[in-house]
Give the backbone structure.
Amino acid sequence: MSQIIIHVDMDAFYASVEMRDNPSLRGKPLIIGSLPHERGVVATCSYEARKYGVHSAMNIKEAYRLCPGGVYMHPNFDKYRAVSNQLHTIWNEYCSAAETIALDEAYLDVTDKAGSWDRACAFAREIKRRTRDEAGLTCSVGVAYSKTAAKTASEEKKPDGYFEIRTEADFVNLIIDRDVRVLYTVGAKTAERLNRSGIRTVRDIQERQEEVLRLLGKQVAWIVGQAFGRDDRKVVAWRPEEAKSISRELTFQEDVDDFALLRDVLALLAISVERRATGVGLYGEGVSLKITYADMKTITRSRLTPATRSAKAILEEAEALLEQVQRKPVRLIGVGLYHLTDEMYRQLRIDDLLRPGQPGGMQEELERLQRRYGLDFAGNLDKIFHGETLYRTVEYMRKHSQ
């Protein structure tokens, strides 16, 4: 028996969670992300907002221009993660392997557990029912012979959809006259290159495959294969150690030219990175600094280090990198660990053993921030590193540093 794969994709996940928890939001154009007067983008939005042309990653000012009567909210990622854990626990009961793509999306290999196509389809409908009954949310589900076809199927009847694609022939018949972007490996730039040569549909790719290979190179030959329905990729569970980096960044509501403040913000970001790295059991053999200036120019600086996830060590390296950059107004700052490893082979430093109750020997640093900005970390340290709370803390610091 060939593969049977289910692709599950929640419908407007963040917005749906908020509408579930606050029924007065239902039926309204809800936009999750930054607020209209802030810098930032749309994280997601309800289907009512999409009717106005609002979409994910859109600049929040443009979203407000299109939908001034919408309801705008900051995301609550801690709540979304908790709901996501509940959802993935349900979904994983039905498969032998689950490939988590995002908080709200996953591929499930049900080949062995289902044993037949009919049983797999029953699993898919059961997943939809349990997602609705146990989480109070809707999802769109596709059942297919491959990952590409399963994702296409889940998109076919959104929202709250269900669709099956049994064979390569069924897949090709469905998409043959659609835009090349229907193939999920064809992004905007690739589509533009194809379009310039008059290749606009999947049928064009099939009929002009040699030209496609000349345009894009043999390394993307599998795009041609997908146009014929070929995709034998397996569902592979994501492992934390496969991540390329662990980082945290923040955009200021007003540009910052106070580099002492930037250094203090790096301290909080370093602690946040330490917590994330500790959560997945990884260390980094390099520290990176990211800065976007007021003129939107983005730079990154990095340096190799002994393996670490200590907030103190991360901060020390980030500070040194900060000293090397041009001093002009900053819009965004971020710090991260890269060259990740699950092995720790350096000798522990004395600093790592001091004050074990605080992250990475940062007690003195936290006390200094408390004195300078009037912050209160006592009993609140865990809350500080939740997405919106960290953002508000940094904005408070920015206003009180002036």
User: Anything to note?
Assistant: DSSP finds 18 helices and twelve strands in the chain.
